[in-house]
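Okay, any thoughts on this one?
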Amino acid sequence: MKVNNLCLLLCVVATFLFSCRKEEAAGNSATDTISAAVLDQIKAAGYDVTGIRQTEEGYIVENDLLLPYSDVAKLPGRLYLPAGKTELVRASQLVTGLPRVITIAVTGLPGSYISATDQAIAAYNSLNLKLRFQRVVGSAQITIQGRDLGVVSGRWPYAYAGYPSGGNPYPSITINTNPSAFGTPPDIVALRKSILHEIGHTIGFQHSDASNPAFSCGPGVYNGPAVVGGVIYIPGTPAGPEACSWMLTCLDPTCTSNFTPGDIIGLRYIYG
């Protein structure tokens, strides 16, 4: 009996350790594991920490926006958007050195993810911007990778990415491979829209309804800040959130188009 009890205890401990590691890999949603000082820094920059998650790269806020650990201490102060101007907004960091081609690789994911990526790339390139995209095999400036981020709850998490740094796009987009995210087999339209959105973050676009996420997420799903972290209004874009914008905080699965008229104005204003 003593041997059996010891074996049982070891099994329980091993299961516990495996569960913890799996949860850590997927991201931890408990804010009590993140120091108060870090939470205060992120809030002071204008980001809402509701539902904040921690990964090996940094902190995920506002559904899918990654703030790397190295950037938290130097986050720009919160910016008050001009009265009546909430869309479209960009980060203070952009891709520079235009015109240029940004290479994108899809690694460790099945063909449906590659097809969705090709469709997203074609959508951007159809706008004839000075910033163009090309899918490659192997080393790339943006790598699309998969990870089981856990069961989607409250429309989150489907994917995440970060802002540009040093004039270059954020180097990775992480897609949730959990079947609850895009289904089995994956929904190509939903994948395309998510990849379009995350590429938007990597080249410097913030959520177009960041000052009022209830516009796309609905009440009670996500409570955004009254001001928005480190963003700049793009002249000529709609004064308020635009339905089906590719950069809404929560994407509407019924919106099948790639970009709205306001989105195109914003993209061409920034990237020609």
User: Anything to note?
Assistant: The longest helix spans residues 2-26. The two ends are 75 Å apart (CA to CA).
